[in-house]
Amino acid sequence: MAAARLCRIRTKVCTPQSFGRCPQNKLWTRSWKKADARPPWFFGTWERLQSQNWRVNGVNNHLGKQRVPRVCLCHSAPAAAGEKTEEFKLVYRFPGIKHCRVLSRLKLLQTATTALTLPPVCYLYLQDQVSQNILLYTTGLALFAGAMLYGMSYFFRRIIGLIYLSETGRTVKVAHLTFWGRRNDIYCPIETVMTLDETGDSKGELLHQFKRYNSKEILYFTIKFGQIIDRQKFTQIFGELE
Q1: Cα separation of 218 and 86, whole Å?
Q2: I want to staple 104 with a disulfide (CB 3.0 to 4.6 A). Which of 81, 82, 181, 192 is the partner?
């Protein structure tokens, strides 16, 4: 009976508009259908998730704003690298420095190759696949290559390739090679550079010493095989040539 009554009530709701309550009941049924399609608990969950997304987006935006000054601070390094903005004029040049650089790198490559062949030879000797003479020969060759590398690098690292003088005449820049065959520049005040009279070198010598008062390191340059680009500035640095 209760089911029959419910069916009757629903049929009455769906009756034509002659009844006064039909529009109201129809509106009520439509609102009930919308609520049925999206339950109230879903609205609360959706609102909580949406509020959490807004909070997360706000935190990300806040962190993104905090990262901007850190990126800007990274541009302060080039200013420190560009402290020496003084211009220099070439005074002396040694053309053979290019050949010294090539020989230094070739000698380094040869020494590395010889050192890499030594462990396999030792392994083969332990397996009785090579004789003792081959082991001794390979070991001696590796030691000789290392000694030659040290001697050649010691000489090449002290050969000056270029000498500059600043436009103000206060700073001397000297370029020479490193152990790896790369260029290294040394900046020193002109007051710290010893003249040729103070070093005791004469004009006829093959190599001249480049000494400083505040350093024990000695570099060498040659006038016989080198080129003096600006003699006046060269005299300003090293004095008159005898």
Answers
A1: 25
A2: 181
